[in-house]
TrEMBL record:
It is found in: Endoplasmic reticulum membrane; Microsome membrane. Keywords: Endoplasmic reticulum, Heme, Iron, Membrane, Metal-binding, Microsome, Monooxygenase, Oxidoreductase, Transmembrane, Transmembrane helix. It comes from Paramormyrops kingsleyae. The keyword Transmembrane applies. It catalyses: an organic molecule + reduced [NADPH--hemoprotein reductase] + O2 = an alcohol + oxidized [NADPH--hemoprotein reductase] + H2O + H(+). Pfam families: p450 (PF00067). It is a peripheral membrane protein. Belongs to the cytochrome P450 family. InterPro entries: Cyt_P450 (IPR001128), Cyt_P450_CS (IPR017972), Cyt_P450_E_grp-I (IPR002401), Cyt_P450_E_grp-I_CYP1 (IPR008066), Cyt_P450_sf (IPR036396). Heme binds at residue 431. It is an enzyme of class 1 (oxidoreductase). CDD domains: CYP1A (cd20676). This is Cytochrome P450 1A. Its cofactor is heme.
Length: 485
């Protein structure tokens, strides 16, 4: 209501006129990635909407995103204080909390280093290039067997249901040093209900912006609280077990390495870090949560696209058959030999844009972007979907055409074009699991494509309409697969 004074030389943000109380909620609708992209055509790459009474700045266009998140990274690196973010992991999340920049930065550095040590550091795992490769190869081979036996018994399967357990086992291996059976009910209940979490955490959840909605009965918010509690209890139990069996001389996994960091810090009197032990160990919650939902969503989409584009599936299989053969499991070192698979994954990321917006950002001080004034503490939505479908960058942006990323002779991926695809954010808040995410999607997919031929099942049509959320998922479906010789 109290409009901040605009400094001289700067302009007021353009945008649609808000309606009292609800703001622009009706125009934003159920698919904000589509409506906010359409608004960008009208108002430009920096504009303001209101969700309820709260102003939100929406950024699109690759140049504007680079300007805000890289060149003016400090100004846009905050997270807004939203109701659902406060509920998530008791407000101790690294990715979603409003931690002051020093605390956030220290935790982010710790998370990055712990994650690296137990995933991609070279030469730490017998016979494999890294621990991550070992986990994925074993889980991938197991997934092929599992899907074949479900096919034999039932004649079809729900891809997400099985992929999510395999992917979760990889991150569980790194975080907790353990894996779960594909029929483990506790894990199934936890990971198969992640849809509600995505729906609540996606940009534009009304209960975050219109306070009275929090007090009305709301199925999604109820489910979100329930899964959140279940998730925290699940991780807490494992963390407690780690504390009781902790041995400084044998750091088994990420949880141990975070506990060890707390112990070391107590000995180091010069340490000036002001982060509680609880907040350090809670980092494992973020790594576990981010590590299974994003990658299983990507892989499940990949399998659905293989079924929707059967000729392309055959081309990908042929590439694997010719360049890797059928006698051994594909490895990370095969990647340069598989440009078509690489291009397929990049186009999958672009076309699905299954993370349509980054996690919402927030300005850390009064700032200006493209000549428009943006006050401190303004919530900012970053529209990745718009960049990935921008007709000024992509020819026929709505066609699924992996070859757009290949060099004319088909032997190499065009890196300049590939880098324009937005899925992991950029700048200070860029995803810390990007390398792991890309490796997992590539290797799991190579293993599946080598051994299985996926197909539609009569009576089960494919519905590829995404369901909006932080991660957009396809509707649950039934597919078939044949084992290849
Ligand atoms: C943040 C995408 C996998 C950990 C993010 C963000 C995006 C993203 C868009 C928000 C960036 C922003 O707010 O500007 C993805 C995708 C993945 C993936 C598409 C897989 C295909 C992972 C994995 C991990 C991870 C495997 C860890 C094991 C994180 C963390 C943050 C984050 C901790 C918060 C960073 C911060 O707030 O400083 N990711 N992610 N992600 N991601 Fe990922």
């Amino acid at each position: 209501l109290l409009r901040p004074k605009i400094p001289e030389g700067l302009q007021q943000l353009p945008g649609p006129k808000p309606v009292p109380i609800i703001g622009n909620v009706l125009e934003v609708g159920r698919n904000p990635h589509l409506s906010l992209t359409a608004m960008a055509e009208h108002y430009g790459s920096v504009y303001q909407i209101h969700i309820g009474m709260r102003p939100v700045v929406v950024l699109s266009g690759i140049k504007t995103l680079r300007q805000a998140l890289i060149r003016q990274g400090e100004d846009f690196a905050g997270r807004p204080d939203l109701h659902s973010f406060r509920l998530l992991l008791d407000g101790k999340s690294l990715a979603f909390s409003t931690d002051l920049s020093g605390v956030w930065y220290t935790r982010r550095k710790l998370a990055t280093s712990a994650l690296r040590s137990f995933s991609i550091v070279k030469g730490s795992s017998a016979g494999y290039s890294c621990i991550l490769e070992e986990h994925i190869c074993k889980e991938g081979e197991y997934l092929v067997k599992q899907l074949s036996s479900v096919m034999e018994a039932e004649g079809h399967f729900d891809p997400f249901r099985y992929i999510v357990i395999s992917v979760t086992n990889v991150i569980c291996g790194m975080c907790f040093g353990r894996r779960y059976h594909h029929d483990d009910q506790e894990l199934l209940n936890l990971v198969n209900m992640s849809d509600e979490v995505g729906r609540v955490l996606g940009s534009g959840n009304l209960a975050d912006f219109i306070p009275f909605l929090r007090f009305l009965p709301n199925h999604t918010m109820k489910a979100f609280r329930e899964i959140n509690d279940r998730f925290t209890t699940f991780v807490q139990k494992i963390v407690m077990e780690h504390y009781t069996t902790f041995n400084k001389k044998n750091i088994r996994d990420i949880t141990d390495s975070l506990i060890n960091h707390c112990e070391d810090r107590k000995v180091d009197e010069n340490s000036n870090i002001q982060v509680s032990d609880e907040k350090i160990v809670a980092i494992v919650n973020d790594l576990f949560g981010a590590g299974f939902d994003t990658i299983s969503t990507a892989l499940s989409w990949a399998v659905v696209y293989l079924v929707a584009y059967p000729e392309f599936q055959e081309k990908l299989h042929q590439e694997l058959r010719e360049r890797v053969g059928m006698d051994r499991t594909p490895r990370l070192s095969d990647k340069p030999k598989l440009p078509l698979l690489d291009a397929f994954i990049i186009e999958l990321f672009r076309h699905t844009s299954f993370l349509p917006f980054t996690i919402p950002h927030c300005t850390t001080k009064d700032t200006a972007l493209n000549g428009f004034f943006i006050p401190k503490d303004t919530c900012v939505f970053i529209n990745q979907w718009q960049v990935n479908h921008d007709p000024t960058i992509w020819k026929e942006p709505f066609s699924f055409y992996p070859e757009r990323f290949l060099s004319p002779d088909g032997t190499e991926v065009n890196k300049v074009m590939a880098e324009k695809v937005q899925l992991f954010g950029m700048g200070k808040r860029r995803c810390i699991g990007e390398t792991i995410g890309r490796i997992e999607v590539f290797l799991f997919l190579a293993i599946l494509l080598q051994r299985l031929q996926f197909h539609k099942v009569p009576g089960h049509p494919l519905d590829m309409t995404p369901e909006y959320g932080l991660t957009m998922k396809h509707k649950r479906c039934q597919l078939g697969a044949l084992l290849r010789e």
